[in-house]
Amino acid sequence: MSAMNAMAGVPRTPSPSFFHHGWPLSSDDWDAQMLSFLSKGYRVVAHDRRGHGRSEQVADGHDKDHYAADAFAVAKALDLKNAVHIGHSRGGGEVARYVPRHGEPAGRVAKAVLVAAIPP
After folding, report:
1. How much is the pLDDT for 117?
2. Domain AB hydrolase-1 spans what residues (predicted)?
3. Domain span at residue 23?
């Protein structure tokens, strides 16, 4: 039996998908994509960046460093490892900052997808 055939019977746990929204949107804007991924067995996560959606309105910390740190706090609290981070617009910039600062050193990023992103 080939290695490929032997692996076919082993259930595989897909990487979680972490969605980062654009400005001035919220996590709700990923609903269709999240439902699609969820229906295929993926764990999905989206957060409202500080000052957006259901997050607290704060006067400071509106920069990519703070946004990346906030996303890391969510990933750490949920113990997400080897996640696929998907960012649109400013969320793509958040992902671009998150990966080198918080993702790779902690083993929390498998891949990054930047969609019409505004990188740092």
Report:
1. 94
2. 19-117
3. 14-115
CATH no. for residue 35?
3.40.50.1820
- Please count the other Cβ atoms lying within 10 Å of the Cβ belonging to residue 94: 30
Extract the tokens encoding 43: 């764990």
Give the pLDDT of residue 2. Answer: 40
Residue 98 lies in a domain: yes
Q: What is the pLDDT of residues 32-62, one digit of tens each?
A: 999 999 999 999 999 999 888 888 888 898 8
CA nearest 67: which of 45, 87, 42? 87
Listed as ranges, residues in the chain with pLDDT below 50 are 1-11
18 sits in which H/E element = strand 17-20
Determine, yes or no, domain membership for 24.
yes
Backbone angles phi, psi at 83, to 5 degrees: -85, 155
